[in-house]
UniProtKB/TrEMBL annotation, chain A:
SUPFAM superfamilies, A to Z: Multidrug efflux transporter AcrB transmembrane domain
UniProt keyword list: Cell membrane, Membrane, Protein transport, Translocation, Transmembrane, Transmembrane helix, Transport
Organism: Alicyclobacillus fastidiosus
HAMAP family noted in UniProt: SecF_B
Name of the protein in its database record: Protein-export membrane protein SecF
Transmembrane segments: 12-34, 133-150, 157-178, 184-205, 239-260, 266-289
Mode of membrane association: Multi-pass membrane protein
Function statement: Part of the Sec protein translocase complex. Interacts with the SecYEG preprotein conducting channel. SecDF uses the proton motive force (PMF) to complete protein translocation after the ATP-dependent function of SecA.
Pfam families (alphabetical): Sec_GG, SecD_SecF_C
Domain of life: Bacteria
UniProtKB/TrEMBL annotation, chain B:
Keywords (A to Z) from UniProt: Cell membrane, Membrane, Protein transport, Translocation, Transmembrane, Transmembrane helix, Transport
UniProt keyword annotation of Transmembrane helix present: yes
Domain Protein export membrane protein SecD/SecF C-terminal span(s) in chain numbering: 231-403
Stretches assigned to the SecDF P1 head subdomain domain: 134-229
InterPro entries on file: Acrflvin-R, SecD, SecD/SecF_arch_bac, SecD_1st, SecD_SecF_C, SecD_SecF_C_bact, SecDF_P1_head
Topology with respect to the bilayer: Multi-pass membrane protein
Protein's name according to its UniProt entry: Protein translocase subunit SecD
SUPFAM superfamilies for the chain: Multidrug efflux transporter AcrB transmembrane domain
Similarity comment text for this entry: Belongs to the SecD/SecF family. SecD subfamily.
Length: 308, 428
């Protein structure tokens, strides 16, 4: 089967693209930071679902009436019908205040008790959760490296991990840029993406490994050809798989519960990025590294651009 | 055409569809739903020892037991109470119940203390705190406190009895015709004047706050459950109103169903009959996964539901990998039957490797995560194992049986494109 176009030859451009996204992401982190949810920032978060679109002034008045001051930026409106109000407070709402809100304030301002979710987190717990989240991504990555290094080889493992960190990074950058709330479900999404991205990469690496058994490349050009061929052999699988999972994620995003919207949004970005990085980043990266030990490899592949 | 094989295939298909259709609704109903799906709350308390006190393992067990007793008195279905970290305890209650009352019952200590005298505010004459010597505490009581009504006045009271009758006897002797001060959690409950000496150790307590049967019962429960060995301070809480949970569940279920139907159609369009077989295996995947959740009493949360759907993606992936391999083999000029065999074999290692890495991610999430993330990790790991069984083993048996039955011979039925098909048909 003839390669349709030479992915490896163009890999410089993909590395460049990913590096550009990475730099842009770092700038976004540095300037905007994350919109941390209550899981990671101490305080309270109250989510109220209305039958109609949210009347922001009325909601603010309601909270003021029970002695809670609502900042300008603290109220966000969500839901397809703009009928979900999410209000964040830097302080911890007491049980008594919560009772007052649910049993009196809602009734006097909106005529009835409304579906309400309240979440409060102590600063200590918030810090602990954030730490655990970062550890779990790093440890998951470390275990995956060990597994791939045993089943494949070390170079595959590193290329795969670079690709998956790239995906996690892109999702983080997107959340920072779009000011989406970073909460616990977001961490679950990142971990899912880590799992999916490596899954995707492994399928391609597996094909490269298999083809390496048939042809033993002596120079860099044969190696490039071999990887190109492997990529195209697995292309329809890569595309079909990402389509099926994307179908599920997109439908869940638009029609699933409001509380998993962040999760599915992260998943959608991560899935696209995961499919992209498996094909255009992980394998070309491996070629660059592997090619160094081959004839003609040193001169041509001196590019040290790593996307993360 | 081999009728025996074909009938075997049809039988398997009928068992999968019939078995699922027949019991899936009942099964679904018996899966416990998380508090984000049916409402409820999640409370995380920090265990705080009194000054000079140490948190010990046995103390924590006693605390767990005491909290358990209190929660059981609330009568909510399947509460989850767990120690977390070194000094935290998490209580999760699902369903519709009086959340503010529950918070009170769980977190408040029922420290009953009987003092010989009290600090009294000179201006108002109100008792502000205990003074004098501590005569007895809740620990001196048997756990048989209960509500009673005074036969003469009809007043609500809590009957208590001392573990050592002599202790109560000494107190009543010493304070005969004098008041004693009974404090609950540092607040004056009652200050009765001892009217007679008591020898049996049985007594009653009453007070202005114990004005209803409910209030008496609550105090009795708390006394019986024993004082908490440590103080608890609420660190974080998450509460979801029952109607909000229901709405999320409904929306997510419908979305999941729509996604599954679309995936089914996609597989049939891409891989035709083989796609249909994959869909059959997917039905089995969904059913078995829910059954395992049920059997293991996994509480299904929103993120668990998401993991289930993601698992469908992984199960589909396993089938796609296999079918693409089969197509490769047909393109290489193999006969349909041997292509199916070799394709399956070649795909297996890829599927195992790719699932193993995702499983590792799930296991790490389980070790390090808490709450929702843990639920997600469990759901993900179960999904992976079940998908390996259904999308690899079951799907393979179905496909091999079907192929061996020779009902169809054209590779077109397995999703192989036209150009290849013509060349190949000449060979068949």
């Amino acid at each position: 089967m003839k390669p349709k176009f030479d992915i490896i030859r163009l890999s410089k451009w993909f590395f460049l693209l990913s590096s550009a996204i990475t730099v842009a992401g770092i700038i976004v982190f540095a300037t905007l930071g994350f919109n941390l949810g209550t899981d990671f920032k101490a305080g309270s978060r109250v989510q109220i679902t209305f039958a109609k679109p949210v009347d922001q002034t009325k909601v603010t008045q309601m909270f003021n009436s029970i002695g809670l001051h609502v900042d300008n930026t603290a109220l966000t409106v969500g839901g397809v019908q703009r009928n979900v109000a999410i209000v964040r407070f830097p302080e911890i709402i007491s049980g008594a205040q919560q009772d007052k809100l649910e049993q009196q304030a809602e009734v006097s301002y909106f005529g009835k008790k409304l579906p309400t979710a309240v979440q409060t987190v102590d600063p200590f717990v918030a810090a602990q959760t954030a730490r655990k989240a970062v550890y779990s991504v790093l440890i998951a990555a470390a275990f995956i490296v060990v597994y791939i290094a045993i089943r494949f080889e070390f170079r595959f493992a590193i290329a795969g991990i670079v690709a998956l960190l790239h995906d996690a990074f892109i999702v983080l950058a997107a959340f920072a840029l779009l000011r989406r709330e970073v909460d616990l479900t977001f961490i679950a999404a990142i971990l899912t993406i880590v799992g999916y991205s490596i899954n995707d990469t492994i399928v391609i690496f597996d094909r490269i490994r298999e083809n390496l058994k048939i042809v033993k490349p002596k120079d860099i050009d044969t190696l490039k050809q071999l990887v190109n061929r492997s990529l195209w052999q697995t292309m329809s699988r890569s595309i079909n798989t990402v389509i099926t999972v994307l179908i599920a994620a997109i439908i869940l995003y638009f029609f699933g519960g409001v509380s998993i919207r962040n999760f599915t949004f992260a998943l959608i970005i991560g899935l696209v990025s995961g499919a992209y990085s498996s094909i255009f980043i992980a394998s070309p990266l491996w070629v660059v590294w592997r090619g160094r030990s081959l004839k003609g490899g040193k001169g041509k592949s001196s590019t040290k651009t790593e996307p993360v | 055409m081999k009728w025996g094989r074909f009938i075997a295939f049809l039988l398997m298909a009928a068992v999968i569809i019939g078995g699922t259709a027949g019991s899936v609704t009942n099964l679904w109903k018996s899966v416990p739903l998380g508090l984000d799906l049916q409402g409820g709350f999640d409370l995380l308390y920090k265990i705080e020892p009194l000054p000079g006190q140490q948190i010990t393992a046995s103390g924590k067990q006693a605390l767990l037991q005491a909290v358990n007793n209190r929660v059981n008195n609330l009568g909510t279905a399947s509460p989850i109470i767990d120690l977390e970290g070194t000094n935290q305890i998490r209580v999760q209650l699902a369903g519709a119940f009086d959340q503010s009352n529950a918070r009170k019952v769980i977190g408040e200590t029922a420290q009953l203390q009987i003092y010989s005298s009290a600090k009294i505010d000179k201006k108002t004459g109100q008792v502000t705190g205990p003074a004098g010597t501590l005569l007895a505490t809740g620990n001196d009581l048997k756990s048989n406190a209960h509500w009673v009504q005074d036969p003469n006045t009809g007043e609500n009271e809590v009957a208590i009895s001392f573990k050592q009758a002599s202790k109560w006897e000494n107190i009543t002797k010493q304070f005969y015709q004098k008041p004693i001060y009974v404090f609950l959690n540092g607040k004056l409950l009652t200050d009765p004047v001892i009217q007679e000496k008591m020898y049996t150790g049985d007594s009653v307590i009453s007070g202005p706050t114990l004005n209803s049967v409910q209030a008496c019962n609550q105090l009795a429960y708390s006394l019986n459950a024993g004082a908490l060995p440590y103080n608890l301070s609420l660190e974080s809480q998450q509460s979801v109103g029952p109607s909000l949970g229901q709405a999320s569940l409904k929306a997510t279920l419908w979305a999941g169903l729509a996604a599954i139907v679309l995936i089914f159609i996609f597989m049939i369009v891409m891989y035709r009959l083989a796609g249909l077989i994959a869909d059959l295996a997917l039905v089995a995947y969904g059913y078995v996964t829910v059954a395992v959740f049920d059997g293991m009493h996994v509480v299904l949360t929103l993120s668990g539901l998401a993991a289930l759907v993601l698992g469908i993606g992984m199960a589909v992936d396993a089938n796609i990998i296999t079918y693409e391999r089969i197509k490769d083999e047909i393109r290489n000029g193999r006969s349909l039957r041997s292509a199916v065999k070799i394709g399956n074999k070649n795909a297996l290692r890829t599927i195992l490797d790719s699932n193993a890495t995702t499983f590792i991610a799930g296991a790490v999430m389980y070790w390090f995560g808490q709450g929702d993330i843990r639920g997600f990790a469990v759901a993900l790991m179960i999904s992976i194992i079940v998908s390996l069984l259904t999308a690899v083993v079951l799907s393979r048996i179905l496909l091999l049986t079907f192929t061996n039955s020779n009902v169809v011979r054209r590779p077109w039925w397995y999703g192989v494109g036209k150009g290849v098909l013509k060349k190949d048909e000449a060979k068949v």
